[in-house]
Amino acid sequence: MRDLMQDWEMRVSRIIDHAAKYHGNRPITSRTVEGPIETTNWREVRDDALKVSQGLVGLGVKPGEPIGVMAWNTARHLKVWYGVSGSGAVLHTLNPRLSGDQLVYIINHAEDTMLMVDFDLSAVIAPIVDRLETVKKIIIMTDREHMPDNIQGAICFEDWIAEQDGDFDWVEGSERDACGICYTSGTTGNPKGVVYTHRSNVLHALAASSPDVLNMTSRDTLMPVVPLFHANGWSIAYTAPMNGAAMVMPGRDMTPAGIYEMLEHGVTFTAAVPTIWLGMLQYLKETGKTFSTLSRVVIGGSSCPRAVIEAFQDNYGVRVFHAWGMTETSPLGTTSSFKPEIEVLSDKEKVDVQTSVGHPPFSVDLRITDDEGNELEWDGQTQGRLWIRGPGVVKQYLKKGEDATVGGNWFDTGDVATMDENAYVRITDRSKDVIKSGGEWISSIDMENAAVAHPGVAEAAAIGIPHPKWDERPILVIVKAPDADPDPAEIVELASEGLAKWQRPDDVVFMDELPHTATGKISKLHLRQQLEKMDYKLPEFRG
């Protein structure tokens, strides 16, 4: 009785086929890179994606070839997203916020044979084009009117698409073929390439869609504020069409006013990193505006302060889902939906749970261990190294040759975490950022989130400063809110709530801005370097 069911390769082209066939008229509203807001639908996106595939094959692209794509969140990007994969090529998303040297390394390492770039981002590629070893053609994703002249021989996307008749079938292959590439942020060396398969993307999107994760339905209108080039676009470009949801694509305007304008196009569900929402809450406070349709926000990428969760829920009636994941995990690992054990708690206790990153869906397996690999108790207190495994988790980095996992396919996330009896995960630090004082760990994340609750604090970073006796002592580096002059003692007091006396920050340092990585996270490596240049000393060692 073995093998009596149909073979049905799980390739991402089946996702857009489903959306076009069964939800074809669902609107996709997009702010174009050229400026105007336009509306299309899933049927039209699929039609143009087929033309992209046809055009790529016509240009000689072969299955398995990486195609670099650098673009903002637009409907045109969705067409390219599915068109590249549908041609059998591998979609390599490129972050325009990386340095020229980083982009050269990534494009050459992946061996991209072609680049597809939004017209305003041609200025990022033009200075490095002569250093790109494998790129043969560059397509500028715009119309003839907006074609730049800074890249010789570039192809105009809209002219190129108009030449295709769309009489084309997706290139077939195995579900285990490479589908996409994202590179890690490379904060401790060169970025590493994570290669997603068609199978891993489909399985990950199915898990992400489930009721206890994103609960995606055809009744939703989803706006990804998180860029599609960030960590597989959080899988949103797969989950939305898989479930027949409408979409709003915000384009390149990431100002609070620009994001708000697009949210008011009927968006019910959106996703972004905490820094985006800190700016949005300030904008809403200044303008007195509210949301007309927004009901759910997924916040991930870095820890979400409790004050942000409470502001969204108490002031604007928007439910916050805190999430955790990595480029290496496709990326979704956990979300803070409520199990029955949580639903019965008080509102304050529920927010306590929401400040965790939640629990994993089926297809994600987690554990915490000590440094010797011994599994630790799920008591909500014991901190350990967080490990993950599943069909959407990396096994090997591109061209590295050796497994990135240990026995049983366990991948070390690099995060320090606790897990409670209900399997809710709380990230307490990155292993490379953890503050260790007197042999005990201090959570920088808890300290930062508490400090940001102060009205005079715009951004906070907690780091450890070397100490001859205690190994390290924590300090807070603060960016003041506009027109604010907060009292350092008040910040220390707020950030110390719930902490033992020895865990309290020893000092507050004010800076005009904090260094960030290309994905918007605070770079504590560069922050430490800045403090060294300032010849910073802890209070007890000054003068």
Into which percent range does the helicity of residues fall?
25-40%
CATH topology of the domain at 8-195: Rossmann fold
In CATH, the architecture of the domain at 8-195 is 3-Layer(aba) Sandwich
Could you tell me the mean pLDDT? Answer: 94
Strand order of the largest sheet: 2-1-11-10-12-13-14-15
CATH superfamily assignment of the domain at 8-195?
A: ANL, N-terminal domain
Strand % is 15-25%
SSE inventory with pairings:
Elements: H1 13-22, E1 27-31, E2 37-41, H2 42-58, E3 66-70, H3 75-86, E4 90-93, H4 100-110, E5 114-118, H5 122-125, E6 137-141, E7 155-156, H6 157-162, E8 178-183, E9 193-197, H7 198-209, E10 221-224, H8 236-242, E11 246-249, H9 256-263, E12 269-272, H10 274-287, E13 296-299, H11 306-316, E14 319-325, E15 332-335, H12 340-343, H13 347-354, E16 365-369, E17 384-389, E18 405-406, E19 410-419, E20 425-430, E21 435-437, E22 440-442, H14 444-452, E23 457-467, E24 471-480, H15 488-495, E25 508-510, H16 524-533
Parallel strand pairs: 1-11, 3-4, 3-5, 4-8, 5-6, 6-7, 10-11, 10-12, 12-13, 13-14, 24-25
Antiparallel strand pairs: 1-2, 8-9, 14-15, 16-17, 17-19, 18-19, 19-20, 21-22, 23-24
Helix pairs in contact: 1-2, 2-3, 7-8, 9-10, 14-15
Overview of the molecule:
The protein is of the alpha/beta class. Among the domains are: 8-195, ANL, N-terminal domain (Rossmann fold), CATH 3.40.50; 436-541, ANL, C-terminal domain (GMP Synthetase, Chain A, domain 3, 2-Layer Sandwich). The protein has 16 helices and 25 strands. The strands form five sheets. An eight-stranded mixed sheet has the order 2-1-11-10-12-13-14-15. α9 (256-263) crosses α10 (274-287).
